[in-house]
Amino acid sequence: MAKSLVTDAGTLYRPGAYSQYKVASSPSGLATTGVLMLVGEADAGPVYSLESDLEANAFGPDQLADVEAKYGAGPLVDAFRAATSPADDPDITGSFSSAILVKTNTSAKASGVLPAIGGGTYATLLDKSYGKGGNGIAFRSLSATAEAVPTTGAFTYIPAVDIVTYRIRSNGTAEVGTTIPANTTGQDGG
Questions:
Q1: pLDDT number for residue 2
Q2: With b meaning 16 or more CB within 10 Å and e meaning fewer, what string describes 105-127?
Q3: By C-alpha distance, which of 149, 155, 147, 148 is closest to 189?
Q4: Contact 184, 157 (CB under 8 A)
Q5: Residue 75: its pLDDT value, please?
């Protein structure tokens, strides 16, 4: 009577060496080569003309969270997500080394005005980002207090000796100085 052993690789009827094959597709999240440029609209983030250096607005295939933090959602973020998804095709291996994102729609910054004492505007507050997410930011001013300008007020300088002579040199220039007699009243520093 023949004994058999059933495994996920097949049924074995007699002892021996048996091979097992498993095809694994390589993930497309590993950067291999190339620069991808994605152009589209997004819910947040600045328009491409406000970027100081568009080439510096590049993201690697593992930076989906950074793209979502900057651009929120929308077709531009969806295109980046699709470009970084693993492919089932064994002929597609690896991924791009960086993707430059170009946002084409304009977005405004949320803003609010801080009132000044006696009316008018003291300052304008602006959201750090762009888009509709800033509409959820709220603020309130509990009290308006006038700014107090610092001053030293009047003071008296009394040297420890009869006369003090001092010299000052700035950036290698010639010495400048004077002599201060005792019991001299200083100038108002306000």
A1: 57
A2: bebeebeeeeeeeeeeeeeeeeb
A3: 155
A4: yes
A5: 92
